[in-house]
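I wish you would study the pair of lines that follows with an eye to the fold:

===
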Amino acid sequence: MSKKQNKANPGIFVKVEDCRDRHQKIEMAMFGEDGRGGMVKDIGDIKNYMESHKESGRGWKQFGYTLLSGTIIAIVVLVLSHI
């Protein structure tokens, strides 16, 4: 048995089996049964989804800025041509 470091109550021991069980549960939640799932995969999927939608929205934003700047230039040219 390994001794748990607790200054308030130094007489508490943790069984190695309990520690392994808890560690195994944490690894299962993070990585899944085969190491390719769990929370790590879920976060990666969310990140990839957000990046792909961020890039698709960027095209519309650039198109809007281009349209707006073209309109402003056309108005300036029209005003200057009448002077």
Summary: The two ends are 93 Å apart (CA to CA).
